[in-house]
Amino acid sequence: MEDIDFERKTALILRSKGDKDRLIYIADDVCNMCLDMLDLLHDKYHFYSEYLFPSSDPNTPLQVASINKKFQEFCNNIVYICF
User: Fold this and answer.
1) Phi-psi region of 16 (alpha: psi -120 to 50; beta: other; left: phi over 0)
2) CB 35, CB 27: distance < 8 Å
């Protein structure tokens, strides 16, 4: 997580579009949620990783395909209300 600065609320995205590195700003609430998640992983589960979103193996990041699958499952379970 050396690419994330929680105090400055910034993250360095390496090799983004056009193969350029970019510095992005993290919203206060997103930053706080990330810190809360890390505290939970450390305190409750004694899980330590260099990745903000690790897989079940702390030495491996969560794969994009896994994130997409979970997001799709979430979207499929949303109940839409039509007016």
Assistant:
1) beta
2) no
d(CA 31, CA 16): 21
Asked if residue 2 lies in contact with residue 11, where contact means CB atoms within 8 angstroms, the answer is no
Give the DSSP H/E element, type plus range, for residue 28: helix 28-43
Reported as a single tens digit per residue, the pLDDT across 29-77 is 999 999 999 999 889 888 888 888 888 888 888 898 998 998 899 888 8
CA dist., res. 76 & res. 83, Å (int) = 20
Q: Report which DSSP code applies to 14.
A: -
Whether the pTM exceeds 0.70: the reply is no
